[in-house]
Amino acid sequence: MGRRLPGPRGPAATLGTTAGFATRPHHTLLGLRDRYGPVVEFGIGPGRLVAVFGAEACAFVFGHDEHFSNHEMFESVAPLSGDTALLLSDGEPHRRRRRIAATGFTRRSIAGYVPAFTGNADRVIDGWRPGDRVDLHQEFRTVIRRATLEVLFGPDLAGDADRIGAMLGPLLAFVDGDAVLQQLRRAFRARAWRDALAGRAEVDRIVRAELHRRSSDAPRPDLLGRLATPVDGVQLTETELLDQVVSTVVAGYETTSAAMAWMCLTVLGAPAIRDRALAEVLTTCGDAPPTHDDLPRLPFLDQIVHETLRLYPPASISGRYVRRGFTVAGHDIRPGTRLLFSPLVTHRDPEIWDRATTFLPQRWDAGRPGFRRPGPGEFLPFGGGAHRCLGAALAVAELTVLLARLVVRAELEPVPAPVRPAGFLAMRPVHGVPVRVRSVRPR
């Protein structure tokens, strides 16, 4: 049972809530919103948290960056992601680094990355045979990891994608735990912490070697080349560049592969949606891989992507450290608070979304009668405000072209399996997306 605190701070959940959050965070947060409303406090000691739910709270967080600190919220992973990564940056240093990093995510840049997405998808699908049982989460995790490294480094290091992925594995496993567990493992220098540090050091070594190899070459059009190029006379230091590379790889394939898994799970479970997506791709592209110019002509696939990101936002839980107090939903949030917010909870709020827990791609059709564009704080798959994910347009493009290749090239039969979300870094289906291959169309 919960108990209500006196005064304007909001209700407090029981100790059992803390254990539930560590093991089933998404289920726990949805339950907290339903039971306690828009503000609830839970946890003990340094793990004490205040969770805020709903569009009003999210809009305030993203609209008032000066009230918050990312670095103080995520400092437990700073030695792994790097003190200068955009996730941990605040104020003017964040704005300067973001301005340089943004050059790698322009529309023109993304257009040049699309062949890496389709090419890597085709290479994995080429390996499937009728009768095979495959896990689409792991298969597309491989696709996205290789494509991310190709986009980042060009083809030179993309061939080492699996080795680099193995180096990053311990780092990813560490940051996928809740903050209290991270603090304990770091404080006691647990094996998980030491392995994560070693993996980060190995990736840094590879990137430094690549930078040295390029030092006498002309700038390249890949993301590493763009990050290493000065903007308005300002250049990233080597430390800043290394931190941006690692955070880009982590964010670029963990969150996107999680979204792809949910999209596969949902589309393959709805034959009418799958058939309509296939018809749109065949009409627009035929058997050929889609180009960036094809994307505006695939509106139904775009609707599928957006509905997936609404119902299953990979970055489903995030937070801020409160530097300046504020009031939300009638509750005072004090300086020094570790604040949680959840796009997942907001995206499933029945006061915002009609049939909130139902997968309805058509809700994104702007020509549909009754269409309503989401308001501030209502649709947040990539965060918002000053820290909105730079790779948002890239992720949407990647998910669209990967879905296009999947529905055109493979006929798959879902294998029944329990569906349960897991993960803090990226919400993923814990049992993957098992399917049986019926047929594969050659490219």
Q: Could you characterize what this model shows?
A:
Helix 7 crosses helix 8 (136-153), helix 7 (107-126) runs parallel beside helix 18 and helix 16 (299-311) packs across helix 18. The protein has 18 helices and 14 strands. With 443 residues, it is α+β, with helices and mostly antiparallel strands. The chain has a 5-stranded mixed β-sheet with strand order 3-4-10-7-5, with helices on both faces. The protein has a 3-stranded antiparallel β-sheet with strand order 6-14-11. A two-stranded antiparallel ribbon has the order 1-2. It starts with a strand and ends with a strand. Helix content is 51%, strand content 11%. The chain has a single domain (3-440), classed as Cytochrome p450. The chain has helices spanning 15-23, 25-36, 55-63, 70-74, 78-81, 91-101, 107-126, 136-153, 155-158, 161-175, 179-187, 191-214, 223-227, 238-268, 271-285, 299-311, 343-347, 392-409, and strands at residues 3-4, 11-12, 39-42, 49-52, 68-69, 133-135, 318-322, 326-328, 331-333, 338-341, 410-414, 421-422, 428-429, 434-440. Strand 12 (421-422) and strand 13 (428-429) form a beta hairpin. Its cofactor is heme. InterPro entries: Cyt_P450, Cyt_P450_CS, Cyt_P450_E_grp-IV, Cyt_P450_sf, Cytochrome_P450_monoxygenase. Belongs to the cytochrome P450 family.
